[in-house]
């Protein structure tokens, strides 16, 4: 039996439910989270009210020894976008939950006083947390492990979650996070400080022989994939230099796509030579894309942190203009301690700096830096946001709400559907990834749409299709249904149909997030729909076909979309900020033209057609 823990924090009631059929029909992880949220949370519910459900879901493969089987999805209605909200994290927490005998936790209601939850195998307790309220996330974890045991894995919020900062994160042990869409604020609204989990069991698989063969196959494919070496070596930092080269950095709030000194100050070589100490890995992961980073010189000498995630560098280093990696690490540390999403935090600060430069902040101007790269000013503003002090109280509402309260500032608010846009400028490179900013069911984000045949250096600018960067033989070997290959790639010389690939990649990543594997390139590119069908069959005992898993993934995505429509989403929300349509982007070779609004709208409509979404009949998007 696959079990779910349901906790009503208002009444302090704990119940256990059998979710075997739900797991079978929705794959697990994100899929089950989606179905539960749609069933349990009214689309019109206040995201920070007791009717919102907060759902942790460890993927079906988590706790097994499939490569990267460590990912857990955290889902609720987002207080940032007022729509479907979800975030994903790895580490050891999800495996501990599975070893304790559970796949999901559903939290509803609101405790009258601060509490935390302990799950020790079959012992589930709701404990007083008044002494933990106000502590940062690391201090919270220290206390719980000191008092309860060092082998507990802890999900916790910091002061930002307690104060309902709308982009507050839930931290995963010391250095991981469920970062995007404000899940920490939802947790804080329930007066829930932490969930500590310890499990000593095992995850059972239905067909051990088949599973052993599939596991061996998966490891070989992942380790032998061409992306494995550089992903292991640099982690996500592998893209830092290429983004600068093609002018895709989000520099100075998406006004500058490159920096002349980027490679020498914030590039991956600097990270490797001067800061990287050792490799780190999540549960059951051969890629080990995380690294322990240590500052060896300067005033922060000796300071260490997990990193260096490229989001830290692109957000604080490019978007805000901080040059020193040590200072970038300190900004990331403040976000971790307070429990705030790095992308949204840097996004609202970039917005505030540009508004200040244009004289829009009045008496509050002294609380916001007026120049890019002001490390101390940025660090102080991060703390004020986490504490909701001064202008930090307004910025804690997120970029959309902040811009609605500062006259004349909306042109500087870089968000889609209320969610701050991360890492890459679509004017520099239009592809499946950047279309995904618009089609993503959780708003302006880059991690739910990604082609398994990315071509970062494609020179042709075509908004409907892009050049492939792989050979015909590679396409033939790609683990993708043959009929979709014909639809997406056509006939040689191959091109990628961007709207159709967006749909396929979203469905593939939905499968990955439901089963609990990772979307890093060695997994995302090496393993496809046939593999997931066979692996699910071996683990669960239920016979899945490739068509089954694709159909279920599409249903999951449609449920998320339907939730958003009922929550008020309109066709006009599928759009970039005006800056991308009206301003050119400064890059090394000169400028990149702005996006053509009418053509982008047509690409979106072709995506709707690929999804078989008919808005004319619904009369909701007109």
From TrEMBL:
It is an enzyme of class 1 (oxidoreductase). Keywords: 4Fe-4S, Iron, Iron-sulfur, Metal-binding, Oxidoreductase. GO terms for molecular function: 4 iron, 4 sulfur cluster binding; electron transfer activity; metal ion binding; oxidoreductase activity, acting on the aldehyde or oxo group of donors, iron-sulfur protein as acceptor. Residues 1-201 form the Aldehyde ferredoxin oxidoreductase N-terminal domain. The keyword Flavoprotein does not apply. Its cofactor is [4Fe-4S] cluster; tungstopterin. The keyword Transmembrane helix does not apply. Its EC number is 1.-.-.-. Coiled coil: none annotated. Belongs to the AOR/FOR family. This is Putative oxidoreductase YdhV. It comes from Pelotomaculum schinkii. The gene is ydhV_12.
């Amino acid at each position: 039996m696959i079990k779910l823990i349901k906790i009503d924090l208002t009444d302090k009631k704990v119940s256990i439910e059998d979710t075997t059929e739900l797991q079978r029909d929705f794959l697990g992880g994100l899929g089950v989270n989606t179905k539960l949220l749609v069933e349990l949370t009214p689309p019109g519910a206040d995201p920070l009210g007791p009717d919102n459900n907060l759902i942790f879901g460890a993927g079906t493969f988590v706790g097994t020894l499939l490569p990267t089987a460590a990912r857990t999805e955290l889902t609720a209605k987002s207080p940032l976008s007022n729509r479907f909200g979800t975030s994903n994290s790895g580490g050891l927490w999800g495996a501990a939950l599975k070893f304790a005998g559970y796949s999901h936790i559903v939290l509803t209601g609101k405790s009258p006083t601060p509490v935390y939850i302990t799950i020790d195998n079959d012992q589930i307790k709701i404990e007083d947390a008044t002494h933990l309220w106000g502590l940062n996330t690391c201090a919270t974890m220290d206390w719980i492990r000191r008092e309860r045991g060092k082998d507990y894995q802890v999900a916790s919020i910091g002061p930002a979650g307690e104060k309902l900062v709308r982009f507050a994160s839930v931290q995963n042990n010391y250095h991981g996070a469920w970062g995007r869409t404000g899940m920490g604020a939802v947790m804080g609204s329930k007066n829930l400080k932490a969930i500590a989990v310890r499990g000593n069991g095992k995850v059972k698989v239905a067909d051990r022989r088949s599973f052993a063969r599939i596991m061996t196959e998966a490891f070989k494919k992942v380790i032998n994939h061409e992306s494995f070496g550089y992903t292991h070596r640099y982690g996500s930092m592998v893209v830092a230099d290429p983004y600068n080269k093609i002018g895709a950095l989000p520099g100075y709030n998406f006004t500058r796509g490159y920096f002349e000194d980027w490679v020498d100050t914030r590039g991956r070589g600097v990270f490797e030579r001067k800061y990287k100490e050792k490799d780190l890995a999540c549960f059951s992961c051969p890629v080990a894309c995380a690294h322990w980073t240590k500052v060896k010189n300067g005033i922060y000498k000796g300071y260490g942190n997990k990193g260096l995630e490229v989001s830290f560098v692109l957000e604080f280093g490019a978007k805000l203009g901080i040059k020193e990696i040590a200072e970038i690490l300190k900004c990331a540390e403040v976000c971790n301690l307070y429990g705030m999403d790095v992308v949204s935090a840097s996004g609202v600060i970039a917005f505030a700096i540009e508004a200040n430069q244009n004289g829009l902040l009045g008496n509050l101007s002294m609380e916001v830096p007026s120049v890019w790269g002001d490390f101390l000013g940025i660090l102080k503003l991060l703390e004020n946001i986490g504490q909701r002090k001064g202008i930090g109280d307004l910025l804690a509402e997120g970029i959309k709400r902040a811009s609605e309260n500062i006259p004349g500032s909306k042109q500087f608010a870089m968000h889609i559907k209320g969610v701050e846009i991360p890492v890459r400028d679509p004017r520099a490179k239009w592809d499946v990834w950047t279309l995904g900013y618009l089609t993503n069911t959780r708003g302006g984000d880059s991690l739910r749409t990604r082609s398994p045949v990315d071509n970062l250096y494609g020179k042709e600018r075509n908004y409907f299709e892009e050049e492939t960067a792989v050979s015909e033989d590679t396409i033939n070997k790609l683990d993708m249904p043959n009929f979709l290959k014909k639809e997406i790639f056509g006939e040689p010389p191959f091109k990628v149909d961007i709207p159709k690939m967006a749909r396929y990649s979203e469905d593939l990543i939905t499968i990955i997030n439901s089963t609990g594997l990772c979307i890093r390139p060695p997994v995302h590119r090496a393993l496809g729909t046939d593999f997931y069908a066979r692996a699910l069959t071996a683990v669960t005992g239920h016979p899945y076909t490739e068509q089954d898993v694709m159909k279920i993934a599409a249903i999951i995505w449609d449920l998320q979309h339907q939730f958003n429509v009922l929550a008020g989403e309109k066709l006009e929300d599928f759009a970039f900020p005006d800056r991308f349509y009206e301003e050119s982007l400064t890059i090394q070779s000169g400028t990149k033209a702005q996006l053509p609004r009418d053509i982008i709208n047509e690409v979106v409509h072709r995506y709707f057609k690929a999804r078989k979404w008919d808005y004319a009949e619904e009369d909701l998007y007109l």
